[in-house]
Write a structure and sequence with these properties.
two-stranded antiparallel ribbon; single chain; flat; 3 helices; two-stranded antiparallel sheet; alpha+beta; 101 residues
Length: 101
């Protein structure tokens, strides 16, 4: 499963990083356990999240499609930051839909 995910991962070269992650990925691992001595059962989920790298446009050297992609990645990360800030501050409105990501 991880090999398939790795093949689908998008990377690209910039002046900042020769293998810059250009996509976000989320891997959810569902775990369950059973203690045979106490008959207790456990269920849990572990979410592993790899966010595409944020890069400064002036430093990255991105042009053309890579420039558009870098702008979109930076915008989506900024939107995620807004959501996290709103959740932390218990704001009445959480801006989940400010980004397609």
């Amino acid at each position: 499963l991880l090999q398939i995910a790795s093949k689908n991962r998008s990377t690209g070269a910039t002046l900042c990083n020769e293998r810059s992650s250009r996509s976000h990925s989320i891997f959810t691992l569902h775990l369950s356990g059973h203690n045979v001595y106490t008959d207790e059962r456990y269920e849990s989920s572990l979410n592993l999240i790899d966010l595409a790298g944020s890069e400064r446009l002036a430093v990255s050297g991105a042009t053309g499609d890579r420039l558009k992609e870098t702008r979109a990645i930076n915008k989506s990360l900024s939107c995620l930051s807004d959501v996290i800030a709103a959740l932390c501050n218990n704001e009445p409105h959480i801006p989940y839909r400010n980004s397609k990501v």
